[in-house]
Amino acid sequence: MTNFENIKQLALKIRKNAVSMTSTGGSSHIGSILSIADILAVLYGSVMSYKADEPKWQGRDRFILSKGHAGAGVYAALAESGFFSVDKLKTHYKDGSDLSGHVSHKGIPGVEFSTGSLGHGLPVATGMALAAKINEDEHMVYVLMSDGECDEGSNWEAALFAPHHKLDNLVIIIDRNKLQSIHSTEDTLGLEPFVDKWQAFGWNVIDVDGHDLAQLIKACDSKVEGKPLCIIANTIKGKGVSFMENQVLWHYRSPQGEEFEAAMKELDNA
Amino acid sequence: MRDAFLKKITELAAIDKDVVLLTADLGFGVFENFESKFPGQYFNVGVAEQNMTGLAAGLALEGKKVITYSIGNFATLRCLEQIRNDGCYHDLNITIVASGGGFSYGSLGMSHHTTEDIAILRALPAMSVVAPGTAWEAGEATEALIKSNGVGYLRLDKTVADENSTHLFSLGGSIKYRAGKDVTLLTTGGILRDVVLAAELLQEQGIDVGLVSMHSVKPIDKSAIVTAANETGGIVTIEEHNLDGGLGSAVAEVCMDNGIVPKIFLRIGLNNRYSSVVGSQDYLKAYYKMDASAIVKRVLELL
Fold first, then answer.
1. Is B2-156 assigned to CATH 3.30.930.10?
2. Which residues contact B109 (CB under 8 A, 6 or more apart)?
């Protein structure tokens, strides 16, 4: 039985940690982090196999955050899942820390791969999935991407490769919050019809509510033999803090002072 | 040079199933034998160099020793950020192999002229940059790069020198093909053939010429440079590459860092140009004054 309450609590902890980390560090991308908190909670709280005390366990499922700017969310998910102390999160973005604004693997147990420049995660994850096929390993490879990131051509190179090589051990989850750093995705460089595009490239595509835990878990389980899986998770940027929701401002704004207090209060009452 | 590379990877793939070759749809008539012999160790990834380099990183993260292959700029500049972020930052075993160093594909036009690769790649930390001068150096470099952890760049050239060596090859080393006290010619890549010829012509004119193949531009053989600067009449560097940031720059850095000013110092190469002139490799080397006769003329002017 899936324990939805535990996953929900993990998502809430990710959100609260992320708001604190971006406030204390003076960093941002908080809207992008809140957008994926439920997805991270589902992966670390239910879907993925891993051993927090043995991060390099060969049988683990692999995870790459391709939208590296939401790295604070991954750091929080890892800390709350036991990979390192939650206390370490307080150093995020600070001088001398190894928890950089964009996710970095160096010295951080549980981070498979460092990103920050968009369009890198999917090709690398595809290589990891190909290696697993060659080695006849059973684990899965998950990569979490942003929708705006799909502007990058490198993703479409990998999007062609993975179905051609029948990499059904590869799962991408696209955080479809429809906002990028300045305007909406459709006003910037239109992605629609988005589902059709991925289907036309040969992917098994599932369109879900990216904040519905049950839908996300079910989608992760919906494998079609011989096809990589693309989950388009329809999300709300800034989800969980009302005044941040769907506001492009919170791509770059750091929650400080009264805004920080208000955000934490809302999450405390959630 | 390509044959030596192919022979070496075929030997290595036979004994190590983790050796994987990726090509971005180049190598027609080259890799068929490798592909049929080693299924699961060869992938033509299509004309997609960014994905190829990302795939290489993913494979290498899982323990593979990955070779990526394409023409000069495609395997390097097209996917430079993947090389830097995905490969170098993660300390992965990836060997980037570019066919067609310098003007190897001269008549094909500037897109195929590989004349800034050494400078750009040697700027990356955690990177080895190797431009062999002979087929033997190319084979040895292939093995050394695949067997060493970290990202390496192997620049293969159509021109090849016939020199033989009794020396051992090592990454970061160099091969002295000729000892001489008047001046030392330091070169990298297949242009070694022209430099050997230039050295013979200079010798005929009574100049005692030293000649060293600096096959490794990064890491570079500092002691060979210091010795040439201190113990011979001076240094002339020759490279089929732009002057900014190439071998000559690397040699100058070593000299300055060691407080040495060679009595003579000259860099021969391409002087900040993109070539729109059509011509064979030999034609373009002559046109841009880096063939044997141009090297002889410029050395004689100095002495």
1. no
2. B276, B278
